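Weekly puzzle thread! Below is a chain. First person to post its structure in token form gets bragging rights.
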Amino acid sequence: MNLDLPDPTAVISEMSAELWNSAVRVLDKNWAGDHMVPSRRLYPHQWSWDAAFIAVGLCYVNPSRAWRDLRSLFEAQWPDGRVPHIVFDPHTAEGDYFPGPVFWDVPAYGGRRPRGSTALVQPPLHAVAAWEVYRRAMSHGAAAVREAHAALEWLYPRLVAQQDYLTGHRDAGGAGLASIVHPWESGLDNSPAWDAAMSAVPADLTLLQKYHRRDLDVADAAHRPTDVDYARYLGLVLSYRDGGYADAHLARDHDFVVECPNFNAILGAAEIALAQIAGVLGADPQVHRARAQRITTAIVDRLYDARSRTFRVLDVRTGAHSPARCISGLVPLILPDLPAYYADDIMTEARSARFGLPQQTDLPAPSYDRTAADFDTLRYWRGPVWINVNWLLRRGMLQHGYRDEAEDLRTAMVRLVHRSGEYEYFHPMTGEGIGEPAFSWTAALSLDLLADRSIPAYARAA
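Winning reply:
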């Protein structure tokens, strides 16, 4: 035996502890009193689906903060049920973030103006997060269990209202799926999945003379949307605002109306989580199970492209699928009722050279087809690796029995963040951190990945 070699178990444990402690420090730094910010510099407010991902990991170290973050978000819920994609921190100056609350100018409803927020939404992962936080409360003692039960009682009707809004007001296609009316609603803001639909949106570059892009003051322009894209983003908001943020006749009156497989897969997963929550609270879980099945069926019927055997974004206005092959098309794997045929197709796509699961690349899946001519290693959502969607993909793999590949993906995510840090996203070739450092959902999901059999993840990679 070579006594000079370190004990592998000790090395693995030390690496796991380093990442755990580092992630906890990020979440402590980004806590803003009653909510978590994604990062202190570029994202100084509360973001909707960020709060869901953050709660999943934050509950391991501070479940009370996880519940408070979710509650803070839903305290800004609109009377129609929509949960805004940003809730503005009143202590942050208007000039510190654009577009801020003055730009959005959300209307008053019944004499009550929603808390300072946007009028857009994001993927409704919150029911999934609430259920995960509740499950883990069992290991925190009786007081934590009581807190969790009370939190579910408060959240449940609000989560139901969120789902009702999305499957009702936003069902522009008439098939029970939610349409998004802005790329920002997808969470995958700058994805090539939107390019075809966005090409019909006017790009008024004079808007960039009137409104200053503050993101370019603190971030590399090569990482951010182009000016043409940003002008279209602002134009869509202004058009929606001028219409009072109303959702009637979306397909007729709005320039961008699409059904996204990522958004709607999460919509379906939320119903599965709500069925679990309803069971705990004594409500009827079957209502949610039935709706989840209907959503799954609609995703298959409308978003599956039989020619390429992939799930694609659908432009509701034109009836055309996006030609882009993006990671959003892999996320329907999280649906437990997805037939095995379609799950196998998703895994075939994920294993292909386009996404190259860790067995091929030793990195998590990129956000866009690696083989595409416009694959971009730096510009966000147009190529870089994101931990949150890979976390969803792993969840789907476990759901459908691809356990070895799920473990390989977990290993790749843990190793990447340990090596490069808790960045917003990562270079899809080198693994270098890109975007904001000390990013909350990367830190929080690292805790979740470590808590789930952390030593085997590093042991297999050592």
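Puzzle host: Confirmed. Bonus trivia for everyone else. The longest helix spans residues 142-168.
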